[in-house]
Design brief:
By secondary structure, this protein is α/β, with parallel strands linked by helices. The protein has 2 domains: 3-108 and 326-416, NAD(P)-binding Rossmann-like Domain (Rossmann fold); 109-324, FAD/NAD(P)-binding domain (3-Layer(bba) Sandwich). The protein is 32% helix and 22% strand. The chain has 16 helices and 18 strands. The protein has helices spanning 14-25, 49-52, 64-72, 91-95, 126-133, 159-169, 172-175, 182-188, 211-216, 236-244, 246-260, 364-367, 375-389, 402-412, 419-435, 448-456; strands spanning 3-10, 32-40, 77-80, 100-103, 109-110, 123-125, 151-155, 195-199, 223-227, 268-273, 276-284, 287-298, 304-313, 317-320, 324-325, 343-344, 347-349, 355-361. Strand 11 (276-284) and strand 12 (287-298) form a beta hairpin. The longest helix is centred in the C-terminal third of the chain and has 17 residues, at 419-435. It is globular and about 70 Å long.
């Protein structure tokens, strides 16, 4: 007798949507007639970090939303938003309605940096800033732009560090044409930053920028990009890295072009410093007044060693962009060191090494916050392959009918949103943009209760 496989995917960002897409298109094992997938998301909206993690002045990257929308048009995939796993639903509850659960919850908060002064006022996590300027409903509407903070430091040389630097250096008027919410526009008008100093612990061949992100720094007429020659070194390990990866060589080529370019006198500057390891955030009266770095040197392998020489930089704010960290999920094991759920190729593994039946992971919660969006496709394919191979051993749910899950949410009074609801909210935000005096594609709705009200209307 054949069965329809019911799978819940917790997290509706790219990793979750790709997993749902691959599940519904895969060759099914014997005895399985079809697969239906329910995407369960904490936010009232789908798309995860595409909506709340990509800078608003990156419309090309957001083009991926069009591809995700095509996936969501599949009748075998449903969306349930505004549901917090661990609060509104537990793993044992999901087992009542699904053969398997795939966790694709990603990573949204900042990784800690254990140096003195990191908790001073004016010291921020990049993820917090990104959530603010992208209008996430669970963060404060205001940002602490100090009236005297003309120089700021950004720690970390990944794409998030570049996004933060660019948003800090651009004017509010430049960003008004994007989808930023009104409160973000008003907040950015209070930003007096003139110099953004980006610090890399190692050399130019070890940065994690992508070439496109790095080139875009100079696209604003109000910004000069200044690469400082100190620490701009290539050892044998660096040269090997450039030979092994064309994209890394392109990054170094762009940096060398910036290095050779004369500043234009633009009112804002992004400075990139190499071989500077942050060791302390300096404070006075509880607020940031500087950053102390140790000068490092390449050791021949592409890694660095400290020289014992220190430099104090007079900055009035510090943004750490050293990586994201995932939240611990209720009922699942968690590796505090890596910020991931222990797994074997995607199968969740208990502390004793045994698999947790019917539980799987994909995306950053599986492998850590590394790689680009495209990497999540192959990641999801690996997890789905394992899940389908486990079908003979998966315990069938007590209530396999899709309507049973809906009824369970209704009985609990959960104010969930649906794909139809997202399309209402999407249309509403687009109409807000059209009605604006300036040319804007959309204006984001920020408040969670308002998003839910519009979606459920």
């Amino acid at each position: 007798m054949s069965r329809n496989l019911r799978v819940a995917v917790v997290g509706a960002g790219p990793a979750g949507v790709y997993a749902a897409d691959i599940l519904t298109k895969s060759e099914l094992p014997e005895g399985v007639s079809g697969v239906t997938v329910d995407l369960i998301e904490r936010d009232p909206t789908p798309f995860g970090l595409i909506r709340y993690g990509v800078a608003p002045d990156h419309p090309r990257i957001k083009e991926i939303v069009k591809a995700l929308k095509r996936v969501m048009a599949n009748d075998d995939i449903r969306f349930f938003g505004n549901i917090a796993f661990g609060d509104d639903l537990k793993l044992d509850e999901l087992r009542q309605f699904y053969d398997a659960v795939v966790f694709a919850t990603g990573a949204r908060r900042d990784r800690d940096l254990d140096i003195p002064g990191i908790d001073l006022d004016g010291s921020h996590g990049a993820a917090d800033f990104v959530n603010w300027y992208d209008g996430h409903p669970d963060v404060d509407r205001d940002w602490d732009f100090q009236p005297h903070a003309e120089s700021v430091a950004v720690l970390g040389v990944g794409n998030v560090g570049l996004d933060v630097s660019r948003i800090l250096a651009k004017t509010a008027e430049e960003l008004l044409v994007t989808e930023i919410p009104d409160n973000v526009y008003e907040g950015l008008k209070k930003n007096v930053t003139k110099d953004v100093h980006v610090f890399a612990r190692r050399g130019p061949a070890q940065v994690k920028f992508t070439p496109m992100e790095l080139r875009e720094l100079s696209h604003s007429p109000t910004i000069d990009v200044i690469v400082h020659p100190e620490g701009f070194e290539l050892d044998e390990g660096s040269l090997e890295a450039l030979r092994a990866a064309k994209s890394q060589k392109l990054v170094v080529d762009v940096l060398q072009n910036y290095l050779a370019k004369e500043p234009t006198g633009a009112p804002h500057r992004i400075h990139i410093h190499f071989c500077q390891s942050p060791v302390e955030v300096l404070g006075e009266d509880g607020r940031v007044v500087g950053l102390r770095t140790e000068v490092t040197e390449l050791d021949g392998t592409g890694n660095v060693r400290g020289t014992g020489e220190h430099i104090d930089w007079p900055v009035q704010a510090v943004y750490r962009a050293i990586g994201y960290y995932s939240d611990n999920l209720a009922g699942l094991p968690f590796d505090l060191a890596t910020g991931t759920v222990p797994n074997d190729g995607g199968r969740v593994i208990e502390i004793d090494g045994s698999p947790l039946p019917g539980a799987y992971v994909t995306g950053w919660i599986k492998r850590g916050p590394v790689g680009l969006i495209g990497h999540t496709k192959s990641d999801a394919a690996q997890t789905v392959e394992l899940l389908l191979s486990d079908v003979p051993n998966l315990q069938a749910p007590d209530s396999a009918e899709p309507e049973a899950f809906d009824a369970h949410l209704d009985s609990r009074g959960v104010q969930y949103t649906t794909w139809d609801g997202w399309e209402k909210l999407d249309a509403h935000e687009l109409s807000l943009g059209e009605a604006h005096d300036h040319e804007r594609e959309r204006v984001k709705v920020v408040a969670r209760d308002e998003m839910v009200r519009i979606s459920r209307s």
